[in-house]
Amino acid sequence: MKIIVDHREKASGIITELAKRGFDVEVKQLVTADYVVESKDRQGNIVTVGIERKVQSDFLNSIIDRRIIEQLMYLKENFTVPLLVIEGSENIYTLRNFHPNAVRGMLASIAIDFQIPIIHTKSPKDTVALLEVIAKRLEKPKSHPSLLSKRKPASLQEQQEYLVESLPMIGPQMARTLLKTFGSIKNIVNADEKDLLKIDKMGKKKVEKVKEVLNKLYEEAENSAKRV
Fold first, then answer.
1. Which residues make Cβ contacts (< 8 Å) with residue 132, sequence separation at least 6?
2. Which residues in the chain belong to E strands, given as ranges?
3. Number of domains composing the chain
4. CA–CA separation, 121 vs 19, rounded Å?
5. Four-CA torsion 220, 82, 133, 111, nearest 10 degrees
6. What is the distance, to the nearest Å, from the Cα of residue 180 to the centroid of all Cα atoms in its chain?
7. Nearest 5°: CA angle at 12, between 9 and 13?
8. Does residue 148 belong to any structural domain of this protein?
């Protein structure tokens, strides 16, 4: 897998180490990010991970001159997955004459306001190991996570309730009411809207949502795209 690295990262030793580990490293001038790892999703679309690497002192300096804000905005705008790596093993709160809350505030802003994950590494070698894990993870075949709870219904009755409860706006009590009224899941599926509306608390909106799920044609491409 190719990893694109900004030319200003040469002094870190990371480029040499990545090459030793068998990666195809392309060094070029990047407008934003220090490392870019590319892969493809299940539909063949390019997925890019843009990684901004900062040693602890540079991270603190970038808070002072507000450079970090612009860099994070570029990450969000240009990559599918933006990621900030802060490298160093010292106590970041004691490196400079910073109030700890100023550092905490920036970290919170990055994670919450920008919604960019922050990963801490101890050294360049540790950062290389992280890049290797990210690259290998992107190479793994993508599988869709199950939308259902891991809890497995024990009895046939619970399985029936479980299936009906998975319909939109249907809770446990309503699932039992529908099964008692219509007798089976098949009868619920085949029931007319007017019959469903006769059930207490089965309003028009709820019935329309249930019927939409039961009757609308399944579109694989659309559903897959939404999960990516």
1. 18, 21, 23
2. 2-6, 24-28, 35-40, 46-55, 81-87, 118-121
3. 2
4. 20
5. -110
6. 40
7. 110
8. no
Phi/psi zone of residue 123: left (φ > 0), alpha (ψ -120 to 50 degrees), beta?
A: beta
Q: For the chain, percent helix, then strand, then coil, each to nearest 5?
A: 50, 15, 35
Instruction: Enter the tokens of residue 44.
Output: 């063949």
| Buried/exposed 50-67: b ≥16 CB within 10 Å, e otherwise | bbbbbbbeebbebbeeee
Q: Are residues 166 and 132 in the same domain?
A: no
Are 133 and 218 within one domain?
no
Cα 60 to Cα 14, 57, 107, 178: the distances in Å are 22, 5, 11, 60
The model's pLDDT over 118-133, given as tens digits with 9 standing for 90+, comes to 999 999 999 999 999 9
**Residues 99 and 211 reside in one and the same domain:** no
Q: Under DSSP, is residue 150 helix (H, G, I), strand (E, B) or coil?
A: coil
pLDDT tens for residues 80-97? 999 999 999 999 999 988
Q: Are 90 and 122 part of one and the same domain?
A: yes
Give the angle 224-227-228 at the CA atoms, nearest 5°: 90
- Is 90 exceeded by the pLDDT of residue 140? no
Looking at the predicted structure, is the pLDDT value of residue 32 above 90?
A: no
Rounded CA gap, 208 and 52, in Å?
Answer: 47
Please state, in angstroms and rounded to a whole number, the distance separating the CA atoms of residues 80 and 38.
10
